[in-house]
Amino acid sequence: xxxxxxxxxxxxxxxxxxxxxxxxxxxxxxxxxxxxxxxxxxxxxxxxxxxxxxxxxxxxxxxxxxxxxxxxxxxxxxxxxxxxxxxxxxxxxxxxxxxxxxxxxxxxxxxxxxxxxxxx
Amino acid sequence: xxxxxxxxxxxxxxxxxxxxxxxxxxxxxxxxxxxxxxxxxxxxxxxxxxxxxxxxxxxxxxxxxxxxxxxxxxxxxxxxxxxxxxxxxxxxxxxxxxxxxxxxxxxxxxxxxxxxxxxxxxxxxxxxxxxxxxxxxxxxxxxxxxxxxxxxxxxxxxxxxxxxxxxxxxxxxxxxxxxxx
Lengths: 120, 181
Prior knowledge:
The complex is a heterodimer.
Chain A: H1 9-18, H2 28-77, H3 84-119
Helix pairs in contact in A: 2-3
Chain B: H1 2-10, H2 17-36, H3 39-55, H4 66-89, H5 94-100, H6 113-123, H7 126-137, H8 142-149, H9 153-171
Helix pairs in contact in B: 2-3, 2-4, 2-7, 3-4, 4-8, 7-9
């Protein structure tokens, strides 16, 4: 029993060193390194998927815009004959496809980043 | 030495991160244990903290010591986990839970010194246990403890004072101080 109100600094240090607990898992280091490697692989996979889908959507949008341009020219030049209504319908259809594709792409990015957040 | 390994990891040597895991795993685990008071949750949090540290290593500017930065992650992760577990399961301490389900651990006949100290550390408030470990085991000053925990200067000093007093009261007479060291 100590008379004073506190232990000395070195006594506190010694007491606390005795109270250090060991990690329950012996393979803790391997688990962490495995987690890190899986994280890297996961990120790489997502980046690859994003790149592929980006290229795919970009090509689709460019094609749509090309067609749109072609049809507008066609419409301006040939507005006097009977193709006007069919051209307009096609134009609207292409716009619709472009919007759907961009929306899908936006959702895809959203879902990947959510998955990423959950993983981290 | 830590700076060298930070550079190694940042230049793409993933295995170099093993140096930090080996060096800081025990202390990180003990800090998490101070807050969570549960060995399995603490191990989980320690693991998550290391992975988070690895993923954010590029944002470590070297203004503080690596261990201060890492311990801040551990403390934040532990507090988040505590909040989540309390919300999800209405956290029951492991001992109470084991008693409830009739799987109470057999008490040892005569707990050794380390077990006695560990029990006392589990029964003092999280903040106090955390402050004691950072101050005495890691030799960190008040400023660094403030960086890790987010406490104010006066708050850190008060917690440390209370922690010393509390530990002394709980251990004085129960252990022979001459046996330690």
